[in-house]
Amino acid sequence: MAWDFESDRSIYSQIIEHFELSILSGELLPGAKLDSVRELASQASVNPNTMQRALSELERIGLVYTQRTNGRFITQDLSAIENARNNFAKKHIIDFLNRMQSLGLNKAQIIDLIEKYYEEDLQ
Amino acid sequence: MAWDFESDRSIYSQIIEHFELSILSGELLPGAKLDSVRELASQASVNPNTMQRALSELERIGLVYTQRTNGRFITQDLSAIENARNNFAKKHIIDFLNRMQSLGLNKAQIIDLIEKYYEEDLQ
Amino acid sequence: MAWDFESDRSIYSQIIEHFELSILSGELLPGAKLDSVRELASQASVNPNTMQRALSELERIGLVYTQRTNGRFITQDLSAIENARNNFAKKHIIDFLNRMQSLGLNKAQIIDLIEKYYEEDLQ
Amino acid sequence: MAWDFESDRSIYSQIIEHFELSILSGELLPGAKLDSVRELASQASVNPNTMQRALSELERIGLVYTQRTNGRFITQDLSAIENARNNFAKKHIIDFLNRMQSLGLNKAQIIDLIEKYYEEDLQ
DNA sequence: GTGGTCTAGACCACT
DNA sequence: GTGGTCTAGACCACG
């Protein structure tokens, strides 16, 4: 977890995306218990308030739920996860295609570029 | 030009990307005169200072230059544009691939999705 | 810090030179924390935005860096400082020599004048 | 006459200094008639209004005077020129020494640098 | 009318 | 309380 403090995007929104990806990819399994806000904040080197805000947002989205006094958990609603996964993919694909088309690239060119960069892209 | 005022990204940075795309796609031609700061600000429904900031940054990047009292123009340096184009494409492709790989998608799956959404994408 | 509001030079550029000199002379030490934008603006009797602009420029030049929410600091990159120092000296020496030569003074005369004024100059 | 349109200084103030130097160095002789505002503006590639403003300022300073219907002339008051010359030199020497001392340079070092740059400085 | 600078004052993300 | 962004509105140099 390394945040880009110089980025245009706010930290908590970067954290949200990080958790989203971990959940949608299955790295964080449905029903799994999250570490405490304080612990997560420490792992992420951010202020607990910032982590808190990110987690609240994830709850609002429905990927995480709170069991009072017991902690926070990844949702067990598999279709919610599947939905989120599709929405996430769709949103970013469309954003990406919009940008590439704005550059004047056609489908074949876009795919060529993906082939080209796919290999180099390891980190 | 419609900005997402709710977005995480600052307005001026959204404006910068908008102009970048217009220039890199050839919609704004090298040497073309831009409307005045005030005019552009009005079109974009933002404060002139905000527009000015975006344009200054585009100038710093080298995509735009100013002729005192005369207006702003798209750079005529074609290689600067070509460079910016490549950097822009590379950055967004890599960001995109990182996200898709984090979702657990492999190259074939990513390309499938692109095929799928490419057609629908007339926003 | 006293700015010449009547001067031809913009305030923020006078402020930039002021900080440059403080840094290059060692009055502000590498790594030292600057006062807050608001505080510096108040000390300098300028608007915080004006001070911010000057500091942003110093950051772009590389003499200062920002730690989000924590404050601004003098760069710790000693070679950046040394470079800036040489550039600053060279620029002002050449400007100065150009003016003196335009007055028709030769090297000996220029040095004589420097000897003469060097002592008096305790402003 | 080449103005730095990117400079912090306004054009008319650059023009003023240019005339000052021409007069103080004797390139423009006392009593000499200046070309018309329009002509000078054209030579300098600036707007007549800008040239006009520079000349008015030179008049205010006393280096130039106007003979109505007849044109503008360099002052014939030799002591005024001599004074201006001394003031100009003094002002710029002191500014220069202040900057160099702020850099932490002592007299010997300053003179060394002048020796060093004096030769290179031919244009 | 054009870009550039400055002020005053508000709101936000983060510690 | 810190830096960053945004707005509204003024004034200046230049053409």
In helices, the fraction of residues of chain A equals 55-70%
CATH level-two architecture of the largest domain in chain A: Orthogonal Bundle
CATH topology of the largest domain in chain A, what is it called? Arc Repressor Mutant, subunit A
Q: Report low-confidence residues of chain A grouped into runs of 5 or more.
A: none
| Strand count of chain A | 2
Count of folded domains of chain A: 2
Task: Characterise the protein shown here.
Four copies of one chain form a homotetramer. With 123 residues, chain A is mainly alpha-helical. The first copy, chain A, folds into two domains: 11-76, Orthogonal Bundle (Arc Repressor Mutant, subunit A); 79-122. Helices cover 61% and strands 7% of the residues of chain A. Chain A contains five helices and two strands. Chain A has helices at 11-24, 37-44, 48-61, 78-102, 107-120; strands at residues 64-67, 71-74. Chain A has a two-stranded antiparallel sheet. In chain A, strand 1 and strand 2 form a beta hairpin. In chain A, helix 2 (37-44) crosses helix 3 (48-61). Chain A is globular. Chains in contact: A-B, C-D. Chain B binds a DNA duplex (15 and 15 nucleotides) through residues 10-12, 36-38, 46-50, 52-53, 55-56, 66-72.
